[in-house]
Fold this sequence. Notes:
By secondary structure, the protein is an all-alpha fold.
Amino acid sequence: MAPPPGPYSGTSTLALVARVSAFSYGVVYGSLKLKYLQAKAKSQKKAEAKAHH
Length: 53
């Protein structure tokens, strides 16, 4: 007997879509976080440079 079609059952289309969307969400979240941290670091360096001058 085949298992009931659940959201993460084997190679069902829904499982594939769920995995892909979760993966792409992770990638987007990661790159946004990286950009945010880089911008934060840049503005911190600018503030430090202003304080030193």
